[in-house]
């Protein structure tokens, strides 16, 4: 599996991107990485590591997309950016997947324009992993589509289920729709119509799930439109950060260095690790012709490593072919026996 | 101020509702409460307390709305429920406001049908208080309207601002719109159109705010449609509960009763208090002809007490008259000088 990595993307690039690529290759000998970006900067980072030359090569890109570049201007004026060159490598079949921790709006727009959609898929969607008491669940769409139709949410359900089943090895993933009450009739116009489609899809559809229950792990896949999903994701992220700050304040006020304080800091840091979704590597934009992983801007080398491995898995397991088939033909042909509701 | 309290509503009714009403009256001699519900059950609770008979009276209701009653069936078949009788007291001007911790869908539907909307208001909305690092902020709409038009979000901004200004005494409340990015152009069709209206309203409008920043206290009022708002609220609530559970698990695993454990439990409980929005009493359904406070199903007596006081304040400060005027005439007539963006 040949994975193109946007070496210039993210707050800690190129140090974290290069280190992450090196680590992914050393962990899996089947992987090779093309580091795309400023060749001088990449070479200088590569010097710090031991790696197999057969697994890592560099592809120069003269431009870098900034975090405040709009998708439109990047597409027009930065045709030699690391994001664009990486995407072009997928298009020309010189790579099997890509990873970028850069400007996510630009990555999405470029991938959609250059790679195009999978046959049968109406709208690609971001599938993000979130923590729950039982482990984790997939939230789809986490921000690619702000205005959706029922057929889109229906396909998000199919795509999220395939991702959960084949990448996270969940046997018969429970699919729920994010809504404001658990009764079938609760929701807005969009979710009520989407509910009917999902109910009859042949999925293990458990109906509506509420925001307060998703972290308990009721569903393995939580479906919503990208506006709601992005807000849900950021509320959770913001709340985790605020929680940590409030607890720290509580500790400082109440202990002033007494016994227990170090201990609490340790517990907090373990907790933050569990809720830090960048630990999962990144979120695939499912529904494109090739695997494209959008990593957090704050990605560490570990996150990049995991994202490269994820891109490789999406390719080697043929998830996109499965998604395309299911979106065109439905689930009727599947061998798996689904649990009746 | 005469406040009707649905004595039968909530998980801890009638004990918590009666105790809360007694406490509110003892705290504010201007308040009087009409406890609505089963008179035998209420009388038996009242025996446990000392109270001034001039401040508390009982109004019998032969029916109780259950949590699984639909608004439609409750409206049709439970015309002698505590929720309905309490609302009727407002309609006949025998009470100035009401509080219910019962089935919130039924409370909303009953209040809307019986009391009707304030002149000038298109859609009543729930204004909920949420915690932030700077104190708290108002989220409006937290669940009354699942499908909204731009004019609704615009009015939510006006109503939330008045609530923040006159009840929480924020001098020039910062109003933000919940969206998926801070740039003006970020959002879905609804928020983009609503943005234009809010920008030109004469409010201290700070533009879009992201889910991850609202808990930092960037905005005093956060505007969104009721579907998004309810999900945001429940995600935060669910995340707070999950955080507490995960941290507790972390403590048990790592300490097994060592020093620090009691201490951490204390810090956690303080934190939970800060994030428990039921501590704020309840959320008004703003835009009705009279103050109607929807309290959490798990309301304690303290929450009911605070809700009764809040209903009294909404009445005595004339917030509804202000809202009606502003929704009809805009803010042009206001004396306050607004900060230019």
Tell me what you see in this structure.
With 341 residues, chain A is of the alpha/beta class. Chain A has two domains: 1-121 and 287-317, Isopropylmalate Dehydrogenase (3-Layer(aba) Sandwich); 122-280, Isopropylmalate Dehydrogenase (3-Layer(aba) Sandwich), CATH 3.40.718.10. In chain A, 45% of the residues lie in helices and 17% in strands. The first copy, chain A, contains twelve helices and eleven strands. Chain A has helices at 15-27, 39-46, 71-77, 82-91, 104-115, 150-167, 189-199, 211-214, 226-255, 261-275, 301-316, 319-329, and strands at 2-6, 32-37, 56-60, 97-100, 125-132, 135-140, 174-179, 204-210, 221-223, 283-286, 292-294. Chain A has an eleven-stranded mixed beta sheet, sandwiched between helices. In chain A, a hairpin with a 5-residue loop joins strand 10 (283-286) and strand 11 (292-294). Chain A is globular and about 60 Å long.
Summarize the structure.
The first copy, chain A, is an alpha/beta fold.
Write out key terms for the chains shown:
homodimer; 341 residues; alpha/beta; Isopropylmalate Dehydrogenase; 2 domains; 11-stranded mixed sheet; 12 helices; 11 strands; 45% helix; globular; disordered C terminus
Strand content of chain A: 15-25%
Largest interface: A-B, 55 and 55 residues
The major pleated sheet of chain A works out as: 11 strands, mixed
Q: What's the domain count of chain A?
A: 2
In DSSP terms (H or I, runs of 4 or more residues), the helix count of chain A works out at 12
């Amino acid at each position: 599996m040949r994975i193109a990595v946007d070496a210039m993307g993210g707050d800690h690039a190129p140090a974290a991107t290069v280190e992450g690529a090196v680590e992914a290759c050393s962990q899996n000998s089947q992987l090779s990485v093309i580091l795309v970006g400023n060749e001088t900067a990449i070479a200088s980072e590569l010097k710090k590591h031991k790696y197999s030359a057969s697994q890592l090569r560099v592809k120069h890109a003269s431009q870098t997309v900034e975090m405040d570049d709009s998708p439109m201007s990047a597409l027009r004026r930065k045709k030699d950016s690391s994001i664009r060159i990486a995407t072009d490598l997928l298009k020309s079949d010189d790579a099997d997947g890509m990873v970028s921790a850069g400007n996510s709006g630009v990555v999405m727009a470029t991938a959609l324009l250059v790679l195009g959609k999978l046959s049968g898929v109406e709208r690609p969607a971001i599938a993000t992993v979130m923590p729950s008491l039982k482990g984790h669940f997939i939230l789809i769409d986490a921000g690619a589509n702000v205005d959706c139709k029922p057929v889109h949410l229906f396909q998000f359900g199919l795509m999220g289920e395939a991702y959960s089943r084949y990448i996270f090895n969940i046997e018969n993933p429970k699919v729920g729709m994010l809504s404001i009450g658990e009764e079938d009739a609760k929701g807005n116009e969009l979710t009520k119509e989407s509910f009917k489609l999902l109910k009859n899809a042949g999925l293990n559809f458990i109906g509506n799930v509420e925001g307060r229950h998703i972290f308990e792990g009721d569903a393995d896949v939580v479906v919503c439109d990208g506006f709601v999903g992005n807000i849900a994701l950021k509320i959770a992220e913001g709340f985790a950060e605020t929680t940590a700050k409030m607890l720290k304040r509580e500790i400082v006020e109440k202990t002033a260095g007494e016994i227990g304080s170090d201990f609490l800091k340790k517990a907090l840091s373990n907790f933050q690790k569990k809720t830090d979704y960048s630990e999962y590597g990144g979120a695939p934009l499912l529904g494109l012709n090739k695997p494209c992983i959008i990593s957090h801007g704050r990605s560490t080398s570990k996150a990049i490593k995991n994202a490269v491995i994820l891109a490789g898995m999406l390719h080697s397991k043929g998830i996109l072919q499965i998604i395309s088939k299911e979106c065109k033909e439905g689930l009727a042909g599947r061998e798996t026996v689904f649990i009746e509701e």
